[in-house]
């Protein structure tokens, strides 16, 4: 696929980390929310087929690349605190790195899947996916040459397809975050070496490419994106899960509310770092192995086909089943024990015959049918976290991976006498 090069696929240290199943990678990639459980009882429903705002309804921003169309459609009720003794919802967040549509139909496929199963997702949009390659000199990546990118640029037609699907995603109720721009994971220019000031430059450029795509492309006849990206953007995921320590001061200064870049977390209730919710991908039981694997499609691939994206077709059915089971292992462990939120990262890629896309779809369908399960975006999840009693959250954080509350939830979360 045109959006990724070999170097862009593998995070620093991924070769060694893959042996224990926790390699970190992010590349291309990209949800509607209603029954998200962020409202009391979790029974808020949105309306499918949200009409496109008219030009009269939209207040254009800047050059008209984006617009203010009011409150985002298809959102759940306002979140409320857990009641004493109440069982926490099982939150599951599917997220997509890059969020570019490159002609393989994966972006609309998962928008439709989400709509059919009452799910919201987070799409981490790479800013340069809205920048025509003819204008790549506008991108000045820190510690890299002007216009450089390890994921390449999209064709003009694919940029238009990406705009169409990002527009639909937001109207369907999904979150649009950021995957930054050039996806540099190796050498001196790696994002792992960037300073807070360099992260600021990268974020500013990502926002600029999203909010000025009409100026950069000349496509003034196309509809604007229906949201104010500067207000919409409250979190992201770094390339290859690198550089979080130096990103966080910048994220805090920007007023972001979460970051999903930590390179390998555990299935426990999250904490804040520097005032920002730290929402890492998580290690989950890997079928047939004694080690655990990170909850991202590429990391499963790295352990199945040793980082190559074109393995042996005869093994695809077994690998697809193994990937599906890995996701479900992580989900079931949390669902049946501490109810820690479950984070899954993906890319819109047909690696190894598209088996990881099938695994995501199969897993989501199973999860969506379970009681108390809420398929939400990161934004919706932190909305819920922020209204909870800090003492309740602290109590939840005492539960280890796979540890069920002693005496059940009615006892565990019951106020002390």
If you had to describe this structure to a student in words, what would you say it looks like?
The chain is α/β, with parallel strands linked by helices. The protein has helices at about 5-10, 15-20, 105-115, 155-170, 195-210, 215, 230, 245-255, 295-305, 315-335, 350-370, 380-385, 390-395, 410; strands at about 60, 65-70, 90-100, 120-125, 175-180, 260, 270-275, 275-280, 285, 290-295, 340-345, 375. The strands form four sheets. Strands 3, 4, 5, 11 and 12 form a five-stranded parallel β-sheet that branches. A three-stranded mixed β-sheet has the order 6-8-7, sandwiched between helices. The chain is globular.
Average pLDDT taken over every residue: 89
For the sheet with most strands, the description reads: 5 strands, parallel
Question: How far is the first residue's CA from the last residue's CA?
Answer: 60 Å
The portion of residues assigned to helices is 25-40%
**Beta-strand residue percentage:** 5-15%
Low-confidence stretches: 1-23, 26-37, 39-48
Number of strands: 12
The H-and-E topology, N to C, reads as HHEEEHEHEHHHHEEEEEHHEHEHHH
State the shape: globular
Our count of helices gives 14
Structural class call reads: alpha/beta
> Rg from C-alpha positions?
20 Å
